[in-house]
Design a protein that fits this description.
The chain is an all-alpha fold. It contains 4 helices and no strands.
Length: 151
């Protein structure tokens, strides 16, 4: 019975436990990879490490502050010129737009006044009707009161 359990355990470990085979395959792959590549990555990194300082020296100017102040001065001059051009265009547009806007506002104002007059007339008409109705009702009530009053 013990021999059967040992055989079953041995069969199970061979069928389900693949670690020894995987470890051997990984070692073989790493050995082949290192032989074929021949430390190319380390040489590439060393070359890049040498190139970075050289590139920095060539690309960055030594007088960065002076260059920045020159750029700022030029930008300020360009902004000033653009502001002057915009001011001139604005003045030219405003003169023509101002006249057009004034005409438009006059037309709008005249239309508004007409509308207000129409609304005023409607309100006056309704008010007159209401006053007439109240006067009629008041006179009727007054007649009714005079009929019933002893005086």
């Amino acid at each position: 019975m013990e021999k059967i359990a040992k055989d079953v355990g041995d069969i199970q470990s061979r069928l389900l436990d693949h670690r020894p085979v995987i470890n051997a395959e990984v070692r073989y792959f790493v050995r082949e990879f290192e032989e074929k590549r021949g430390h190319r990555e380390s040489r590439l990194l060393e070359n890049l490490n040498k190139m970075v300082p050289e590139t920095n020296e060539q690309m960055l100017p030594t007088d960065l502050q002076g260059m920045l102040s020159d750029v700022v001065t030029r930008l300020e001059a360009a902004n000033h010129m653009a502001d002057r051009v915009q001011q001139r265009e604005l003045e030219a547009q405003q003169s023509t737009q101002l006249q057009a806007n004034m005409e438009h506002l006059k037309d709008d104002w005249a239309e508004f006044l007409k509308e207000q007059q129409r609304l005023k007339e409607e309100v006056d008409e309704e008010h007159a009707k209401a006053v007439g109705q109240l006067s009629t009702r008041y006179s009727e009530k007054k007649k009714d009161l005079t009929k019933f009053s002893p005086f």
